[in-house]
Amino acid sequence: MLMLDNLKIMVVDDTISNLKMAKNALEGMGDIFTVPSAKLMFELLPKIIPSLILLDINMPDMTGLEAIAHLKLKEQTRRIPVIFLTSRSDPGAELAGLSLGAVDYITKPFEPVVLRKRVEIHLTILAQRVSLEKQGEELRHFNEKLKLMVREETEKAMKLQSSVLNTVVDMVEGRDDITGGHISRTMNWLRCLIEGTLQEGTYRKITAGWDIDLFLQSSRLHDVGKISINDSILKKPGPLDTNEFETMKMHTLIGAQIIDKIISGLPNSNENFLTHAKVLALSHHEKWDGGGYPLGLAGEDIPLQGRIMAIADVYDALISKRPYKKPLTHEEAVEIIVEGSGRHFDPILVLIFEQVCHQFRDFQLLSENSLDGDYSEEDEYFGTISEFDYL
């Protein structure tokens, strides 16, 4: 028989002979408390919480049925197993007791050996319940610990991913001599556009499965292909000729290839994050009218990520200082992008841009002192604003 530590059994009966007989029968099973009334039982309960109660039904002042009802109302006592003791052979009373939560029913006069055996059975059940609850608690504790370990390992992986990402981004910006934080600003423009798109409900089906934070983080790799572009082209302090521009355009394909290699080398990597990054690297220079590169996609054949990035990327190029041009004002940049609707840019996204572009201006005012640098890819071929083919 499974046994409980500090076992306490309370016998409640208004007949002294029954109390003595029960105490003798249960000797050695734990601390036995004999109580002559239910009223006294409730006075003792704040001090003594028994493992099991043997409760007479037919008692003056408070019956056993009334007593068990009160026991079940209190959090401290509602789970204590109760076995009824009664001289009745009334099936109705037995049913009433069981309905109120009694675990068993023993008819008086009882045989001491039978009483002891019935109590042993219920103490075994109680011990098993306590053991299962303890195991359950240990399992919950283990699961919480496991979750914490997984969370910590995930955070470590995310920190490592972020560290690698930051290193790659720094390499890209460092090679391109863009000192004004083009990538971080572009992330801000993207956030404004994607939040406006979600709020408007436009392209809801496409964006339904997107993790927006991952999408924004992945945008930092949109120019990763520049790592492979020769410095003589990448750092040229002026407009590129036709051949140089054709070489520069390769950074989109190279970027997608680099991210493909990362995906194939990291089978457990964040596929959603890397998929966004690949799409952005490949498609952010496509134009709505099909005049972009590298694939000459048009309209909705251009992935939505690329269409959103196109607006953010061009806006940042327009407001940024270059060796051969001054930065345009926010208003001038907005005008050029609006004029490019339906040719360079997705018309629906341009409408959303017009609704949220005040957020661009507010952020620009906060960061206007950092808008220095050389050319971005949007300036690679067109050396002056008048030559810049936004449309």
Summary of the model, kept short:
By secondary structure, the chain is α/β, with parallel strands linked by helices. It is 56% helix and 6% strand. Strand 3, helix 3 and strand 4 form a beta-alpha-beta unit.
Describe this structure in words.
The protein is of the alpha/beta class and 391 residues long. The protein folds into two domains: 8-138, Rossmann fold (3-Layer(aba) Sandwich); 177-387, Hypothetical protein af1432 (Orthogonal Bundle), CATH 1.10.3210. 56% of the residues lie in helices and 6% in strands. It has helices at residues 16-25, 38-44, 64-73, 91-99, 112-176, 182-200, 204-207, 212-218, 231-234, 242-265, 271-283, 304-319, 330-339, 347-367; strands at 8-12, 31-35, 52-56, 82-86, 104-107. Helix 3 (64-73) links the parallel strand 3 (52-56) and strand 4. The chain is rod-shaped. The termini are far apart. Residues 369-391 have low confidence and may be disordered.
Descriptors for this entry?
single chain; 391 residues; alpha/beta; Hypothetical protein af1432; disordered C terminus
- Average the pLDDT over all residues and give the rounded result: 83
Q: Report the structural category.
A: alpha/beta
Strand residue content = 5-15%
Terminal residue distance: 87 Å
What's the CATH topology label of the largest domain? Hypothetical protein af1432
Radius of gyration, in angstroms, nearest whole number? 39 Å
Helix content: 55-70%
Shape: rod-shaped
* CATH level 1 class label of the largest domain: Mainly Alpha
Number of strands: 5
Number of domains: 2
